[in-house]
Amino acid sequence: MKLGMVGLGRMGSGMTERLRGDGHEVQTYDPQVESTAASLEELARQLEAPRAVWMMIPAGEITESTTKELIGILDRGDVLVDGGNSNFHDSQRRSAEAAAQGIHFLDVGVSGGIWGLREGFCLMAGGADEAVALIQPVLETLAPADGWAHVGPSGAGHFVKMVHNGIEYGLMQAYAEGFEVLKASEFGLDLEEIAGIWRYGSVVRSWLLELLYGAFEQHGSDLKDIAGYVDDSGEGRWTIFEAINEDVPVPVISAALYARFASRQDESFAAKIDAALRQQFGGHPVKSEQ
């Protein structure tokens, strides 16, 4: 089928290549790279009714403005897909705004990263049955076998992807802490070797562990050329907010998010407070700043 792809970054470019490789005709728009269209209006003219446009751009203001512009360009019966990591509340609002103009809006959580081109992308679609059916050939090409689902109504796709990313935080932090314990031990352990053997038969084997082994291969077991600064793109925070609203405890995901916050501090002021209090009540020595 014909599809318009807005955004040709790491994910969008891989998705476009995978689609074209399976015979789909993909028209593209990204002002930063060579595209088939020089504007969203031109992109729309390159498609046929009912048109399908997939946005693969960062969540936030750029998605907000692009959605509004496309709702003003597309016609009744067309489909607009947000494949970025938007907040599901925003997706529900945008769906209602699109529906007022007779346009279908789908929120599709996409997982797979830079490996999706080769392995396929896991897709979590939220929205109306009719709209999902219109883009089903695209979903079937992008995903590996059994790797996509229509998970629910508007907002459900991005909600499921949000929780997916919250779980990812916890998994990554568990590996990070475990390997730090290994590194600090008295045994002089080869972390690359351990990550390697854990890939086979171990209860903790996973794709993330395979990626960690690849990182040790590339950078060495001490990861000397990687700074210990870990950013977050919002989904972990949102997962925790929703858990609070639902009265659901998520201590692992919460701790993983706080560990990311801690990674960004050159020195923790809270640790200074702890040291000062120990000195005050117990006379414990403190270390002076260099």
State the gist of this model.
With 290 residues, the chain is an alpha/beta fold. The protein is built from 13 helices and 7 strands.
Shape: elongated
E-strand count: 7
Uncertain ranges? none
Radius of gyration: 23 Å
Mean pLDDT: 95
Secondary-structure-derived class:
alpha/beta
Provide the β-strand percentage band.
Answer: 5-15%
In DSSP terms (H or I, runs of 4 or more residues), the helix count works out at 13
**Biggest sheet features:** 7 strands, mixed
Helix and strand sequence: EHEHEHEHEHEHHEHHHHHH
| Share of helix, binned | 40-55%
Q: Enumerate the strands of the largest sheet in spatial order, edge to edge or round the barrel.
A: 2-1-3-4-5-6-7
Task: State the separation between the terminal residues, measured CA to CA.
Answer: 64 Å
Which characteristics define this entry?
single chain; 290 residues; alpha/beta; 13 helices
Give an overview in words:
The chain has helices at about 10-20, 40-45, 60-75, 90-100, 115-120, 130-135, 135-140, 155-185, 190-200, 205-220, 235-245, 250-265, 270-280, and strands at about 1-5, 25-30, 50-55, 80, 105-110, 120-125, 150. A 7-stranded mixed beta sheet has the order 2-1-3-4-5-6-7, with helices on both faces. About 50% of the residues lie in helices and about 10% in strands. It is an alpha/beta fold and about 290 residues long.
